[in-house]
Amino acid sequence: MMTLFITIFMLVQLSVNVSMQNCTGLYRKDGTYCCYGHKWDLVHNICIPCDDGFFGTNCASKCPYPKFGKGCHSSCTCDVQKCDHANGCIPPTKSISNVTEADTTMNLTNLLRETTETKQEMINTLLFGMIGLAAVSFIIYMIYIYTITLEKRIVYTAPFQQN
After folding, report:
1. CA angle (9, 146, 12) in 5-degree steps
2. Distance between CA 159 and CA 129 in Å, rounded?
3. Neighbours of 37 (CB within 10 A)
4. pLDDT at position 71 over 70
5. Is-contact 35 48, C-beta < 8 A?
6. Minimum mean pLDDT range among 61-65, 144-148, 150-154
7. How far apart are CA 159 and CA 23, in angstroms?
8. Res 11: pLDDT
9. Burial (CB count <10 Å: 0-12, 13-18, 19+), residue 54
10. Arithmetic mean of pLDDT, 34-49
11. For the chain, how far is it from start to end, CA to CA, in angstroms?
């Protein structure tokens, strides 16, 4: 029984350590760090993923050519002059004057939605991990109980020998 308890305790510790990693990066007043590929959001006081086209500690680096986009996982198929680190290949006719207030509002709304979705994904991952850990622990406990019961049956049903 003690072995089962120790096993469950170690699995819980492992689960918590994997999901709540200490990250190196930008130091916060409360002693927390932002993970690599995240930056501190001063408005919401949380770490958020890097904007498209940026990576590294505190999102301080731009994606190098020919890479672009979220996490620098996409590749440009155009010349270096036409490759934007955030959006990839951009036609030369696009200019900054075409950006409207609606575009800016949409980008901010998308950023807030992504932050909320990322936070929810982390909660879901932790929740599923804990449920899985509880299920495995229950199965191990049931096997333990079954084994103890089976051993008692074997002892009680052993043939009585007469001299």
Report:
1. 10
2. 47
3. 19
4. yes
5. no
6. 150-154
7. 63
8. 57
9. buried
10. 83
11. 38
Q: Read off the pTM.
A: 0.41
> Would you say the C-alpha torsion 105, 110, 116, 118 has a positive or negative sign?
negative
Burial class (CB in 10 A: 0-12, 13-18, 19+), 38: buried
pLDDT in tens, 99-125: 555 555 656 666 566 556 666 777 778
Q: Which of 19-28, 94-103, 126-135 has the highest average model confidence (pLDDT)?
A: 126-135
How far is it, in rounded angstroms, from Cα 29 to Cα 11? 31
**73/61 Cα distance (integer angstroms):** 14
> Two tokens at 52?
């498209």
Query: What whole-number distance in Å separates Cα of residue 25 and Cα of residue 145?
Result: 47
Residues 6+ apart with CB under 8 A from 65: 76, 80, 83, 85
